[in-house]
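pasting for ref
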Amino acid sequence: MRAMPDFVHLHCHTQYSLLDGASSISDMMDKAVRDGQKGVALTDHGNMFGAFKFVSEARKRQLTPIVGCEFYLVEDRHKKVFSRAKGEQDHRYHQLLLAKNKTGYENLSKLCSLGFIQGLYGKFPRIDKELLQQYHEGVIATSCCIGAEIPQAILQGKLEDAEAKLRWWLDLFGEDFYIELQRHRGMEDIDGTGRSQEYVNQVLLGFAQKYSLKVICTNDSHYVNEEDALPHDILLCINTGAHLEDIDRFRFPSSDFYFKTQEEMNRLFEDVPQAVDYTQELLGKIEPLDLARDVLLPAFPLPPEFSSQDEYLRHLTMEGAKRRYGTVTPQILERLNFELDVIRNSGYPGYFLIVQDFTSTARQMGVSVGPGRGSAAGSAVAYCIGITNVDPIKYDLLFERFLNPERVSMPDIDIDFDDEGRDKVIDYVINKYGRNQVAQIVTYGTMAAK
């Protein structure tokens, strides 16, 4: 009797598939550990927002993290105008890609970024095959789910077209292309085609035999346990602006879209046992990823008469002290020298120079700038160079709350701009320092039981 082979989940959506995935990364991994699984994949829709936390949480549990993404694939990522009169539509297909190694991770990151920068249409970051040809090294691809281009062609009865599409992927990815099988209840008649998910599977298995392709099985996991199907359904209602009782709203066809156990997956694919085996082979291709990086500090362009950022920051600070205080007393000088030494030893002069640059420019443009918020108001250097307008010496504010020489961490300078002027400041920073050197960061709001 054949022993139950190990299974690895390779198609998993978490809460970072916004308003579509309901799996907590930690809960999903805890279930994987309890079930004796050796690895797990992260494949959120169109983004890799959860990658850093995912890799970190996997390491804590001695799991192999497989970083991936389920992209939105279109014919032309640049096209964003469609004519209904001409019957034009934005045909988006799902496409699963997994990173084998550091190069693959970097290429997935590039694809994600370009999807948002060049391909964003509505709320969908889209990529195309032109990008895939540029950024496929180190990447594993699959035939993906029922929403992918090969399964969609099969559903429409266009088997020759489906096979031609398969050959394109095979030519590009070679041995790193896998046929993907899924089995979910409620998929007997998809989109009124009269064809089922199992029909698609059988055609894919035929292709696999013809081209000697390896087959993997996955479950389109959107929540951790089967009983989470209702909360997930509520999430979909929020996403689509619908009510639970609406008859024709978007919904999943069953409660099958959860993080199944190895036993459940082996039982589900007992007629295709190699599909379970090859999930382990794929896992064996994955190289360890370390996503932690040292802070990359900005390079501020110096005036020609200054040789270092530290020298220029000291100059601006002392000139600013004269304007702020009139007379620079020994007490003030001692405080400034102490702060400047800590800033220099921590490697942050460039950071201070850039912040003072755009706050000073903002005021020159007539943009209202906040007087100082958070621990940065405790810095006399920040006060002297115009970042803040609160005198920390007068109010006996501690610099060490902002930047502690005993425990150096990246300082966080909170700046407030008025609503109308904020975009002007962002445009200034982008134009001066380069679009590829500037990014905005997101803060996630989460929903939980009260």
